[in-house]
Design a protein that fits this description.
The complex is a heterodimer of chains A (about 290) and B (about 300). Chain A has about 290 residues and is an all-alpha fold. Chain A is built from eleven helices and no strands. In chain A, helix 1 crosses helix 11. Chain A is elongated. Chain B is mostly helical and about 300 residues long. Chain B is flat, with a radius of gyration of 24 Å. Classes of the chains: A mainly alpha (about 290), B mainly alpha (about 300). At the A-B interface, helix 5, helix 6, helix 9, helix 10 and helix 11 of A face helix 1, helix 6, helix 7, helix 11 and helix 12 of B.
């Protein structure tokens, strides 16, 4: 009993050190703070936004910033600040959905392929290769062209392509784990497959998966905004940053300030996630 | 070697078949009824009988696999059917739009190399000095920038403020360079970092020290030995970037109103022009598979240590 407790504190100490190293890096700190700010904006958008982001009032269209409209109004008289706040909601929730789907599909497939090995593994690898070779734009185009363009279909297209990356990573890491000595010990000790997979392999590969996922969020956010910008994603009048930019194109000569804010916000959030991802990756790399 | 190439080549076939079948199935189960779209073009307000008549004429009432076989056979002969909107062969349409995209891709390719190679090398030579730090900050920024936003900003600065290009766009004057810059924006950062990291590793190798000791000048060492040894990782990335010059051109083309294949593809999504869309996807998908095949062979030609599996 006593030894068991000692073992437990030992383990949690290692884990504490591990997280400490991640959180000590300034990149992680900056990234995390900025991401938290955006997350707060996303969650409390209905409370924080001074106006309804969809409320059209053409009598006050394209107004300069004022007390009532801190960042002015757009071409339909909608409050720009409110639309930006609501936009963070779409950006974050859509990208997290894509991430959840791809991780939940990709990791189990990769883990299974790596653990089982043999013919099944090589067949799964071939399938992964096919998906890795497919550019997102082609898939998004095919899906939007046949099923129509919408936010849900965009999530589908992004997920269809990116699960393969996680599958490949999970497989490679599982193969590494499989060759380690503790695996032989576990098998000799009569440990079942399920226990080996969930208690040991999954636990050991998870940090690397999380690092990849954090690095990927930025590019998912960029894709969502980009596809919405060209009309293959979220549709107007949704207050999404890509759509706001696409709307602003017609006013490039008369009212250019419309296109500044969404672009800057996209850049800041992507930069924050990239920093966070780098911080986590550096932490996990120096084991 | 010949045998391995043949094996690689045979492996391409199921991939092409799988990709084309997915493309075909997606259009097949599409919400839009192709027969109805065609009938609406033929007749003002088609009756159900007229729709069925068109369906039979176009062979849209046959089993899926038969239709796929027919479609694939025609596709391999460059026949994707006629565009629903212009009634010209879809392949011809694509060919008409291709040069603009090609021009943009070539410009982007060279601009990327001109900017990233020197920056990456300099950053590696002056590791952790001011120049390196500045380059690293710039590359973090460039990776996070939305290309479409940069495109709009460039259009604003050069079109509206400085009035050196036409705001309406097109593909003349300085626009190709600006469009290529926007297209490259995140690649600048990725490529510079990649060259920097690899170069730092290479510069620490013994043979670099040996060639320095031998009396070779620094420039010579870097260009002769350094660049040659980072070729493989750089090429891998460069190929995926070239692919996205063709597949991701739609965003930039739509901002600068360049009449390229990306714009054509977007237009055909709006007009539900299935033949053009299928042709676009087919050509690009097959192109990517073939390109990856060629790259695999090129690798083993550059570096004998890499064995073709």
């Amino acid at each position: 009993m006593g030894s068991r407790r000692a073992q437990k504190t030992d383990k949690s100490m290692i884990q504490n050190l591990y997280w400490k190293r991640i959180f000590q890096s300034p990149k992680t700190k900056i990234g995390l703070i900025v991401v938290m700010i955006f997350a707060v904006a996303a969650v409390f958008a209905p409370v924080l936004a001074p106006h309804d982001p969809l409320l059209v009032d053409v009598t006050i269209k394209l107004k300069s910033p004022s007390a009532a409209y801190p960042l002015g109004t757009d071409q339909l008289g909608r409050c720009i600040l409110s639309r930006l706040l609501w936009g963070s909601r779409y950006s974050l929730s859509y990208s997290f959905t894509v991430l959840m789907i791809t991780v939940c599909v990709g990791v189990p497939i990769g883990l299974f392929a790596g653990y089982v090995g043999g013919k099944i593994d090589s067949v799964i690898m071939r399938i992964i290769d096919v998906f890795m070779a497919m550019p997102v734009f082609i898939v998004a185009l095919a899906i939007a062209g046949t099923m129509g363009a919408s936010g849900a279909h965009l999530i589908l297209s992004l997920s269809v392509v990116s699960w393969a990356e996680y599958a490949r990573l999970a497989r490679a890491l599982t193969l590494q784990e499989k060759n380690k000595n503790y695996m032989t010990a576990l098998k000799a000790g009569g440990c079942g497959h399920a226990r080996i997979i969930f208690r040991h392999i999954l636990r050991n590969i998870l940090p690397s998966v999380i690092a990849l996922a954090t690095m990927e969020i930025g590019s998912i956010i960029l894709s969502i905004a980009g596809f919405s910008f060209i009309g293959l994603g979220v549709q107007a009048p949704t207050p999404e940053w890509g759509i706001m930019l696409s709307d602003s194109k017609s006013y490039i000569q008369t009212y250019p300030s419309l296109m500044f804010y969404p672009g800057i916000l996209i850049m800041i959030i992507v930069l924050a996630f990239n920093y966070l991802g780098e911080g986590i990756q550096n932490g996990t790399a120096q084991k | 070697m010949g045998k391995v190439i043949a094996k690689r080549f045979i492996f391409m076939i199921p991939v092409v078949l799988a990709v084309t079948f997915i493309i075909f199935m997606l259009s097949f189960i599409s919400a839009g009824d192709a027969a109805r779209v065609l009938a609406e073009q033929k007749y003002e307000h088609p009756s159900p009988e007229q729709v069925e008549e068109v369906r039979h004429e176009e062979g849209l009432d046959q089993p899926v696999l038969v239709q796929y076989g027919k479609w694939l056979n025609q596709a391999l002969h460059g026949d994707f059917g006629k565009s629903y909107s212009t009634r010209k062969p879809a392949f011809e349409e694509l060919k008409r739009y291709f040069p603009q995209t090609f021009k943009l891709a070539v410009t982007s390719f060279f601009l990327l190399l001109i900017v990233s190679v020197p920056l990456g090398i300099l950053s590696a030579i002056y590791e952790n000095r001011f120049l390196d730090k500045a380059v690293r900050v710039l590359s973090s920024l460039s990776v996070s920038m939305p290309s479409f936003w940069i495109g709009l900003m460039l259009l604003y600065i050069f079109g509206v403020k400085l009035k050196v290009i036409s705001v309406i766009g097109g593909n003349a004057g300085g626009i190709p360079i600006l469009a290529a810059f926007a297209m490259d924006i995140s690649f600048f950062g990725i490529m510079t970092r990649l060259i920097r990291t690899n170069m730092i590793q290479v510069l620490k190798q013994d043979y670099i020290r040996a060639s320095r000791a031998k009396g070779l000048s620094s420039v010579n060492v870097i260009l002769r030995h350094g660049l040659k040894n980072i070729l493989i990782p750089v090429m891998t990335r460069l190929v995926s970037m070239v692919i996205s010059f063709f597949c991701g051109s739609a965003v930039i083309e739509s901002i600068f109103s360049i009449q390229g294949i990306g714009n054509l593809a977007l237009k055909s999504v709006v007009t539900k022009d299935a033949p053009v869309l299928q042709c676009f996807i087919f050509i690009l998908a097959v192109g990517i598979v073939v390109l990856n095949f060629l790259v695999d062979i090129a690798y083993s030609a550059i570096d004998r240590r890499i064995q073709l599996k």
